């Protein structure tokens, strides 16, 4: 029965049914067969979105939209150019560093890809970079978006697994930077091999002018991180403060957002928030089914027949997550599988905060992997490039990305060192 419910849910998702309906239908089948009173469905739907913590999701989505519409992207690129533009493959390195900065604002790989890709891919092509490489490095660098705080995907993980949001967000800092650094190393290697250009080193005067213009945008992730670490405000409160700060600098400082565009931003944010909240509401029903049917215990017993060694188990789960990431969006996979897998890893002594970061990083790489690979489709459309050529160029990039996953998996210290210092 347990197998049929999970298999039905996965089949419905593969067939293209929205994940909220797939969760709801498969759960409903279980409830009917088991003779459970269906009044609990309505109660679970309401309980699934009745959460103060969940307010952080629409708030951070709104911040990302404000910054994207407020012309912040060009300022981020300019600052990144001052920092690393003089390295070999200057503009490609700018792509990597700009993703780090932008991820501290948007918390989304998709937003990162759209905002930076639309500017950097044409610019890289104009400066002599191969179109395939320009698109591939943009997709790969965007993977740090959901790892470095604020991360909407990590917030979702915390909600569905009842883990503290603050430590989860902070735990993503070092793995996110590690991923970006590994990509910068690959970029340097390929730039030397293909003789990609670099910029002259910026003068002190140029750097001061660039940072004086862009520093208000750069302060946003700093406010969020240090606010959470210091305990001045909760992650949800930090999201609300981030919205207020975003409105101030985009409307009154940079003056790139007016009343009309703000209405459009609110509309888009409301739509994206409603999708996530609807999925989480349906996930609450599925979580009840997971608990009632003891899916985690059954799957755990099956895994433990192979080994009880934490290293072996985490390796099996990484392989499983890579496969799932080929077919499901990270947020959807988190909602479905995090409540099932987290109790299993906790049984063998793996820290759930560390596992949350690892799960999000592994699944996000799936966002740049066919056949779903939403990040690949976005950059292919921007670059007017065939999907097959893009995938071929992406293949070597999976080496530094997988290396970052393995280092994060087998060295928990990378995820937990800052958490242990401040929480």
What would you say this structure looks like, in words?
It is built from 22 helices and no strands. The protein has 423 residues and is mainly alpha-helical. The longest helix is centred in the middle third of the chain and has 35 residues.
Task: Give the topology.
Elements: H1 2-14, H2 19-34, H3 39-49, H4 56-69, H5 72-84, H6 90-106, H7 109-126, H8 131-141, H9 152-161, H10 165-171, H11 173-194, H12 204-230, H13 235-253, H14 259-293, H15 295-304, H16 310-325, H17 330-347, H18 352-366, H19 374-383, H20 387-394, H21 398-410, H22 413-422
What proportion of the residues is helical, as a percent range? over 70%
Mind describing the biggest β-sheet? none
| Strand coverage percent | under 5%
What's the total number of strands? 0
Distance between the termini: 41 Å
Average pLDDT rating: 87
Radius of gyration, Cα only, in angstroms? Answer: 21 Å
Number of helices: 22
Shape: globular
Oligomer: single chain
Helix-strand pattern: HHHHHHHHHHHHHHHHHHHHHH
- Stretches with pLDDT under 50, minimum 5 residues: none
Structural class assignment:
mainly alpha
How many domains? The number is 1
């Amino acid at each position: 029965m347990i197998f049929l419910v999970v298999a039905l849910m996965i089949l419905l998702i593969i067939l293209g049914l929205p994940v909220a309906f797939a969760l709801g239908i498969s759960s409903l089948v279980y409830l009917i067969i088991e003779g459970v009173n269906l009044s609990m469905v309505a109660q679970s739907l309401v309980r699934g979105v009745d959460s103060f913590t969940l307010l952080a999701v629409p708030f951070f989505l709104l911040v990302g939209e404000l910054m994207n519409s407020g012309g912040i992207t060009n300022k981020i690129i300019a600052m990144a150019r001052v920092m690393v533009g003089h390295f070999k493959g200057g503009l490609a390195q700018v792509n990597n560093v700009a993703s780090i900065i932008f991820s501290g604002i948007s918390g989304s790989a998709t937003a990162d890809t759209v905002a930076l890709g639309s500017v950097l891919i044409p610019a890289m092509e104009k400066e002599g970079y191969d179109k395939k490489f320009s698109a591939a490095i943009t997709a790969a660098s965007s993977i740090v978006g959901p790892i470095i705080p604020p991360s909407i995907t990590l917030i979702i993980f915390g909600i569905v697994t009842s883990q503290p949001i603050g430590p989860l967000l902070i735990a993503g800092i070092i793995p996110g930077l590690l991923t970006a650094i590994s990509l910068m190393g690959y970029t340097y290697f390929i730039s030397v091999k293909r003789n990609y250009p670099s910029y002259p080193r910026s003068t002190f005067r140029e750097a001061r002018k660039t940072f004086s213009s862009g520093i208000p945008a750069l302060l946003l992730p700093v406010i969020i991180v240090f606010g959470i670490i210091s305990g001045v405000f909760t992650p949800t409160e930090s999201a609300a403060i981030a919205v207020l700060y975003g409105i101030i600098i985009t409307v009154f400082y940079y003056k790139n957002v007016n009343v009309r565009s703000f209405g459009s931003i609110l509309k888009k944010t409301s739509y994206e928030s409603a999708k996530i909240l609807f999925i989480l509401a349906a996930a609450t029903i599925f979580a009840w089914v997971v608990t009632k049917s003891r899916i985690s215990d059954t799957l755990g017993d099956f895994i433990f027949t192979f080994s009880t060694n934490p290293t072996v188990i985490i390796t099996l789960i990484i392989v499983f997550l890579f496969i799932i990431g080929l077919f499901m969006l990270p947020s959807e996979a988190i909602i479905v599988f995090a409540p099932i897998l987290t109790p299993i890893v906790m049984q063998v002594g793996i820290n759930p905060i560390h596992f949350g970061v690892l799960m999000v990083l592994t699944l996000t790489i799936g966002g740049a992997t066919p056949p779903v690979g939403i990040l690949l489709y976005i950059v292919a459309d921007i670059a007017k490039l065939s999907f097959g050529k893009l995938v071929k160029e992406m293949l070597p990039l999976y080496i530094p990305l997988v290396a970052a996953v393995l280092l994060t998996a087998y060295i928990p210290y990378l995820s937990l060192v800052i958490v242990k210092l401040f929480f």
